[in-house]
Amino acid sequence: MQLTSVHARLFRNIVDSGAVAIEPDVTCFVGKNESGKTALLSALYRFNPVYPEDTFEVGKHYPRWRLVRDRKVTDLDTVRPISCVFELSDGDLKAVEEVLGAGVLTGRTFQMSVNYEGRSSVTLDIDEAAACRNVLDDEGAPQALRDEVAGLMDLDDMADKAASLQPEDDAQFTVEQAQAVAATARARLAGKGNAWGRAVQILTDRLPKFFYFGDYQTLPGRINLQELGGGDQPGATGLQTARALLRLADTHQGALTEEDFEERKAELEAVSNQLTEEVFEYWTQNPDLSVEIDIDKTTQNTHNGQTAVARYLDVRVKDRRHGFTNNFGQRSSGFQWFFSFLAAFSEFEDYPHGVVVLLDEPALTLHGKAQADFLRFIEERLAPHAQVIYTTHSPFMVDVAHLDRVRIVEDRGPTEGAVVTDEALAVTGDSLFPLEAALGYDIAQSLFVGPDNLLVEGTSDFTYLTLLSEHLKELGRTHLDTRWRILPAGGATNIPAFVALVGRALQVTVLIDGSPAGVTKLKNLADRGVLSKKRLLLTDMFTDGIAPSDIEDLFSPGDYLKLYNAAFGTHLKVAELNGADRIISRITRATGQQFTDHGRPAEILLRQRTTLLAGLSETTLSRFERLFEAINATLS
Hints:
By secondary structure, the chain is α/β, with parallel strands linked by helices.
């Protein structure tokens, strides 16, 4: 079962978050402090928490500024602060089919809401008649018995009817056959009133658990072995992290405390090597560190005298750079957090029925590069086994290669409360800062990676060029050379300044639209030798006569209207666009409203690229192909 959408209402500073799409692997909530990120994560956690005592409470969680007013008009316990939509897996379908038979589930969507009282409400499409037919078919009921219960669309009613039948001697079925149908129907219901209720029970039992991690319990550097045998839930205590650590190293307490010296030493060294390999695959800050596990013995009095007993497990870190070892608890807080996190999360790799891992501002104590290591850990180790949802306001925790995973959280005041949008390329203001900073960091890094930089105006240009290049490559056609780094400058007016600063030091090719604003300054820079004239490319050169043009004009009108209509929920047709100038101008005339939101159609192409790219016309593909040929021709 996979979480596909969440919707929070009337929880802390959330009035109505709107439906929030959740990615099958990793979803990132970005926003300012106090924007509502933690509130959304907290509401989601309480949908099906790993610790049952973590429930909704009106007094703690209902928006305070509405509490008195809303209490007068409704029973607040019935308010549903969280609703989740899941896509059923083949295993879920099979689990229902094994009990109720084939054809009972008529869809793959399971939606559940939970109210403040803890009661759930479910939407699930069920064919009750199919469940009845399956019982009759499985019991081989004769037609005469089927006729007696015909029209009853409920397993419980059918069972009652079958159980009450007293056939005449000349009837075409026996009382035993009727009783068998009744018994089978009731067995499948297992106390539920109908097939819908039974299917809901089966699927509810298969819901993934939700684990919330904020201030995670750090692994102790010195562990009392007598306390290590408990059974806390994952993430509950530091000792549970220690148990997870031993499982990660594929060992156990008994092996580490073996009396024979050689066997004990061999196991400790094997564990140390395994942990070093696991940890430093994802911790690249100091490759000269290694993990060492050791046993500290104490003496205790016995009737035979004093005996040495293994009492403590010491986790130590060896620093080969400086030639010493020290206790794990004396290392940096960032290293402790990362190490503990890796150990504990190994618990989730094989969790039954799946898990949704919720991380509130993870890795804040880590250096920016270490945060990138942590993102790689999520991507490679955690996401293949669990859906991951995390919040951040750190640009280093935003993966610019996956902006489609980002959801922006904004608090719009008491009336609207915190809301969530997935239109990452269309949002402006402080809420977008982590994305802008992440892109800026990626650009800054690229300036030192290689000389071949393609400078474009904004993120929508970046999106179009990247996606079309990938698509043409898959088709075996001309695409952007892999040496190019595409750099969004944040607007046409920024490009001349950027070129003036780095143009002489780096090989920069500029792609700009045909608007006069930036073109004149760039031509002046080319005249002065700051920018090679052959490296100044205008979209006008590839739009078949549309001049001045925008990047959008490389699409055929029909192709671009597909993106526009999908982005804005409109139904514009090519026949409604008058003129032969820029597509943006034609849309403005057709709608009567100035069109400036270039990001949303690009966002649609990014999110629906599988279907939309496949439907692009030859006109669009050939225009982008000619553009890529021209760009590649400017390479040194």
